[in-house]
């Protein structure tokens, strides 16, 4: 073969290339030992409009007998934007921050009620931004939520994700990440819920007290735990263990005997949207729930007839709750069910004539709920 | 000018050669580019784009059937004469080098933004060009074998994307065709540009050792594969991002994959990018080959493209270093895209007409 280069030159070229290949790492290497790994972030809004950025990073203290203790360190700083606050933080912490491993974003209610997209923009823009971190709203200040020292885990980056995951399993909300809410923030006619936390300083714990309803980029209301669970079911999402406790009568002296707790086993949801020619929207939300009785201190479930009676009571109770919940979402203008999106998808002509910003409040949503007890545990 | 007999590839390898030439640097931003024109009907645009490519492939086939052992360059010589042919050949070589440098500069820009912000661009470009030179210098069959082998990586690519089916909202593609046919056709134009690479048919076809109809079959298979692959990617991106967020993400595929994380592997986008780099390399190699094959056609005695690879690569590196920053690179890319109108659509069709009108054909030799 007629080669352009001699063997010697090839060898030289090869060596040069090898050297170049080996060099590339040097520009962009980031050593973990040289950076502060941020594992949880809290964002708050000061009354003067500045952002308080609170971060948690682990510090390893070498103990005496080869035991090393990992400790969470909390620092915070203010700035005009999230990144500005982070720059200010960098000025007072040794080593560079690395936020790419962040697990959870806690947003103070004040900031959430104003707008969240602007504060998160920096994360979307950064190729190493932690877009799969979970997001939650804190009642009061997010800074406080990172300063508590829960006994479950000394590390905030473990405590909060685990807390959110376990609460999500009992059906309060679907876990949303920074990325998943971004899509929903921009989507029309489809809103979202974020977990809503309260800090209990006495017990040094955070507690999920329900969900925060969002419309586009800001928080517009809150739901209690029970309401969120039902709303999620009405949205056709069944988590592992959605449970409800309802009052079924109030004659018993021992108060506990007035209640029943059910675990939702299976759901079947159908949403039908009727639009009249003058764009009046009627949504029929049929939800069939198969439930297990988890707790029934009165113990009267020995026949199908009794179960039927209970079914009726439960259906009545849950329908009432559903109506209340839906009214709340409409008041908050939070279209969690995605009714608007469905109208846009399947009735585009009507959608163009509507103004969903205003119209969602005025549509009528009729829940038709049917509860059936299918199991009652291992006793009657 | 006849080709060396032993340097031939099979029609099976030809399929992968065209697929790999088509799938390249543009794939990351392809769904976005189409989306800007066609909105959430982009996937239809891609399908229509595939049909257009098929028509072009048939035209190419008719042209190349008349000159079974010639590449585009020799066809130019024999239909338009040595002088005009020479000029057009030169233009083609410049076009291929420009596409090559466009690939290099887009590649370095994306790597710079996504994973190696501090590494200088020239280094990335030189590394890529180095790989290109190394691979293209050998015979075409080596290149083809390499292409077949790395096509396995496309499966990884697809699997990574399929994972996103867990997190999509099917309602996002509705209402279908709300804005009418015009935006879809505009999107088709953009889709066509990301399918560029099938013009390799004009260069590689004579190297394929099989009947003419089999060549067309092979090219059609690769076109169908690429079309389905592209519309699948576009569809997934639409389902994932919905209508408004899409506008914000110029590299939707990468962005989507970045938001996933597995237990054992946190940044899948890095894995994805590594697979993508191979695709970039293969399409760069294809253009490098096309350019050096063109340079070879000017020489009377040389029957190997290898000596010219180096010059073509150097040129493409130098040109690719000129545009700097996202906006400049974008402008350069648009410029090259418009050139492909002339070189992929216009000239080959003109050439076909010319050869049909003048009844020019390669002399039969049996």
Summarize the structure.
Chain A is of the alpha/beta class and 380 residues long. Chain A has 13 helices and 14 strands.
Question: Can you tell me about this structure?
Answer:
- The complex is a heterodimer of chains A (380) and B (366).
- Chain A has 380 residues and is an alpha/beta fold.
- Chain A has 2 domains: 198 residues, no CATH class; 139 residues, GMP Synthetase, Chain A, domain 3, CATH 3.30.300.
- Chain A is built from 13 helices and 14 strands.
- Chain B has a single domain, classed as Amino acid/polyamine transporter I (Up-down Bundle).
- Chain B is globular, with a radius of gyration of 20 Å.
- At the A-B interface, helix 1, helix 8 and helix 11 of A face helix 6, helix 11 and helix 14 of B.
- Chain B: Keywords: Germination, Membrane, Transmembrane, Transmembrane helix, Transport.
- Chain B: Belongs to the amino acid-polyamine-organocation (APC) superfamily. Spore germination protein (SGP) (TC 2.A.3.9) family.
- Chain B: Its main location: membrane.
Q: How is the biggest beta sheet of chain B arranged? A: none
Average pLDDT of chain B, to the nearest integer? 86
Q: Give me the strand/helix succession of chain A.
A: HHEEEEHEEHHEHHHEEEHEEEHHHHE
Number of domains of chain B: 1
Q: Which protein chains make the most extensive interface, counting residues with beta carbons within 8 Å of the other chain's beta carbons?
A: A-B, 33 and 35 residues
Structural class of chain A: alpha/beta
What is the chain-wise order of helices and strands of chain B? HHHHHHHHHHHHHHH
Question: How is the topology of this model organized?
Answer:
The complex is a heterodimer of chains A (380) and B (366).
Chain A: H1 7-23, H2 25-28, E1 35-37, E2 40-45, E3 51-62, E4 68-79, H3 82-92, E5 96-98, E6 104-108, H4 109-114, H5 117-125, E7 134-138, H6 142-147, H7 156-169, H8 178-186, E8 192-200, E9 205-215, E10 218-224, H9 225-234, E11 243-247, E12 259-275, E13 281-295, H10 304-331, H11 339-346, H12 348-353, H13 356-362, E14 364-375
Parallel strand pairs in A: 1-5, 2-6, 6-7, 7-8, 13-14
Antiparallel strand pairs in A: 2-3, 3-4, 8-9, 9-10, 11-12, 12-13
Chain B: H1 11-22, H2 30-38, H3 42-66, H4 72-80, H5 82-114, H6 121-136, H7 140-150, H8 152-162, H9 181-194, H10 200-204, H11 212-245, H12 252-258, H13 268-298, H14 306-321, H15 326-357
């Amino acid at each position: 073969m007629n080669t352009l280069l001699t063997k010697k030159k090839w060898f030289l070229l090869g060596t040069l290339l090898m050297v170049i290949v080996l060099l590339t790492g040097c520009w962009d290497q980031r050593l973990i030992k040289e950076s502060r790994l941020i594992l949880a972030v809290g964002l708050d809004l000061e009354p003067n409009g500045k952002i308080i950025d609170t971060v948690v990073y682990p510090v390893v203290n070498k103990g005496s007998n080869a035991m090393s203790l990992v400790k969470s360190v909390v620092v915070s700083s203010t700035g005009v934007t999230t990144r500005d606050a982070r720059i200010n933080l960098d000025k007072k912490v040794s080593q560079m921050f690395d936020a790419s491993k962040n697990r959870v974003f806690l947003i103070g209610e004040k900031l959430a009620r104003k707008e969240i997209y602007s504060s998160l923009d920096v994360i979307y823009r950064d190729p190493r931004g932690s877009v799969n971190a979970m997001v939650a709203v804190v009642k009061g200040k997010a800074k406080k939520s990172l300063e508590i020292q829960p006994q479950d885990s000394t590390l905030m980056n473990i405590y909060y994700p685990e807390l959110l995951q376990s609460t999500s399993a009992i059906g309060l909300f679907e876990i949303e990440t920074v990325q998943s809410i971004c899509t929903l923030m921009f989507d029309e006619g489809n809103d979202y819920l974020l977990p809503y936390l309260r800090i209990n300083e006495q017990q040094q714990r955070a507690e999920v007290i329900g969900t925060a309803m969002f419309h586009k980029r800001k928080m517009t209301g809150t739901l209690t735990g029970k309401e969120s669970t039902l709303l999620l079911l009405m949205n056709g999402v069944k988590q592992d263990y959605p449970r409800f406790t309802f009052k079924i009568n109030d004659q018993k002296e021992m108060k506990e005997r007035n209640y029943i707790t059910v675990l939702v086993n299976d759901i079947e949801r159908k949403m039908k949207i009727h639009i009249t020619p003058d764009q009046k929207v009627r949504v029929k939300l049929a939800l069939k729930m198969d439930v297990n009785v988890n707790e029934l201190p009165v113990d009267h479930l020995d026949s199908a007839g009794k179960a039927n009676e209970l079914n009726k009571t439960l259906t009545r109770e849950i329908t009432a709750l559903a109506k209340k919940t839906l009214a709340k979402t409409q008041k908050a203008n939070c279209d969690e069910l995605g009714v608007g999106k469905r109208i846009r998808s399947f009735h585009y002509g009507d959608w163009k004539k509507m103004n969903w910003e205003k119209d969602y409040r005025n549509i009528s949503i009729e829940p038709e709920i049917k509860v059936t007890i299918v199991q009652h545990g291992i006793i009657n | 000018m006849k080709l060396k007999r032993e340097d031939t590839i099979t029609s099976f390898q030809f399929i992968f050669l065209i697929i790999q030439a088509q799938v390249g640097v543009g794939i990351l931003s392809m769904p976005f580019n189409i989306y800007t024109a066609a909105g959430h009907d982009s996937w239809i645009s891609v399908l229509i784009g595939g049909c257009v490519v098929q028509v072009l492939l048939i035209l190419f086939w008719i042209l190349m059937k008349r000159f079974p052992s010639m590449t585009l360059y020799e066809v130019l010589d024999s239909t338009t004469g040595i002088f005009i042919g020479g000029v057009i050949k030169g233009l083609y070589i410049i076009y291929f080098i420009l596409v090559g440098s466009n690939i290099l500069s887009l590649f370095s820009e994306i790597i710079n933004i996504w994973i190696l912000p501090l590494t200088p661009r020239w280094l990335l470009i030189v590394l890529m060009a180095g790989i290109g030179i190394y691979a293209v210098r050998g015979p075409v069959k080596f290149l083809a074998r390499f292409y077949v082998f790395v096509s396995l990586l496309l499966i990884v690519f697809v699997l990574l994307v399929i994972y996103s089916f867990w997190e999509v909202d099917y309602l996002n593609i509705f209402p279908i065709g709300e804005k009418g046919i015009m935006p879809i056709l505009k999107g088709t134009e953009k889709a066509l540009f990301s399918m560029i690479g099938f013009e390799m048919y004009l260069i590689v076809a004579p190297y394929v050792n099989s009947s003419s109809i089999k060549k067309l079959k092979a090219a059609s298979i690769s076109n169908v594969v690429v079309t389905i692959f592209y519309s699948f990617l576009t569809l997934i991106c639409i389902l994932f991002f919905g209508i408004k967020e899409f506008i914000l993400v110029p590299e939707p595929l990468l962005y989507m994959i970045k938001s996933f994380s597995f237990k054992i592997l946190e940044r899948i986008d890095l894995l994805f990018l590594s697979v993508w780099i191979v695709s970039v390399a293969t399409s760069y190699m294809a253009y490098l080959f096309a350019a050096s094959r063109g340079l070879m056609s000017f020489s009377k005695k040389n029957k190997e493209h290898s000596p010219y690879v180096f010059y073509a690569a150097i040129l493409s590196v130098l040109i690719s270093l000129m545009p700097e920053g996202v906006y400049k690179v974008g402008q350069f890319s648009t410029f090259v895209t418009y050139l492909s109108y002339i070189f992929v659509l216009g000239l080959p069709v003109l050439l076909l007409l010319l050869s049909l009108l003048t009844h020019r054909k390669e002399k039969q030799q049996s």
